[in-house]
Backbone:
């Protein structure tokens, strides 16, 4: 483990549960793709491997984004906020970020007194997860 | 209280602590300005007043962004992610979002093995909080 990476991690203020929220943003278009969570090991892997790695709260396991779906996020730059308790990942998203097959997870917008679906899937979910139907 | 607003709130999955993370993004440039937290009442006020309102975890109080500093965020659109547990606010930021006087809270970037400060304050913090020096 390099000292530099440890210095990077040392500035991140992980919460009482060991996690910080991490926003993934497409580096060139500015589109907010998703929000997930990172523990220290996920942040370390993200920096060392140059691809987004999160902590899945539902599975309680490290989650290299795209390991099942192939929809990886190459790390362009990692940024930290003023309090050190939120991470912003500028990434290059391969394919789609959302498990529904949409480019971004933020596809519902409050418009005219109702929730509007503002994006359709680019890929059918069953193509993303051929071995896990219904996921 | 309108039924529509209650319908909006009904789709937001607040966590065990009653909160969801909320990302504020400048609506036209795509710049991610800050991340804060919302409880149900903060989300309600944001929709009814058309300006960002958060829940301050440090002060344990509702926080109408800009009420002290004047740096308000006019709501352009509220979006919700696939799981319903993260909110994206497209806003028009008046002035700066960060308490350090910078436009965005994400002013530290990991570059070349160290944290680089990539933005300088637009406003001196003591101008933002003239009655609370040091804040």
Residues:
């Amino acid at each position: 483990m390099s000292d530099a990476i440890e210095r990077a991690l040392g500035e991140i203020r992980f919460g009482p549960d060991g996690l910080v929220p991490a926003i993934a943003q497409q580096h060139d278009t500015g589109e907010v793709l998703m929000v997930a969570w990172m523990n220290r090991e996920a942040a370390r892997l993200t920096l060392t491997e140059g691809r987004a790695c999160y902590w899945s709260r539902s599975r309680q396991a490290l989650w290299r984004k795209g390991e099942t779906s192939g929809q990886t996020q190459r790390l362009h730059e990692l940024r930290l906020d003023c309090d050190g308790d939120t991470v912003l990942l500028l990434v290059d998203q391969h394919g789609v970020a959302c498990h529904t097959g949409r480019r971004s997870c933020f596809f519902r917008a409050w418009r005219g007194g109702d929730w509007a679906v503002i994006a359709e899937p680019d890929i059918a979910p069953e193509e993303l997860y051929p071995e896990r139907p219904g996921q």
Notes: Residues 40-49 of chain B form the longest helix (10 residues).
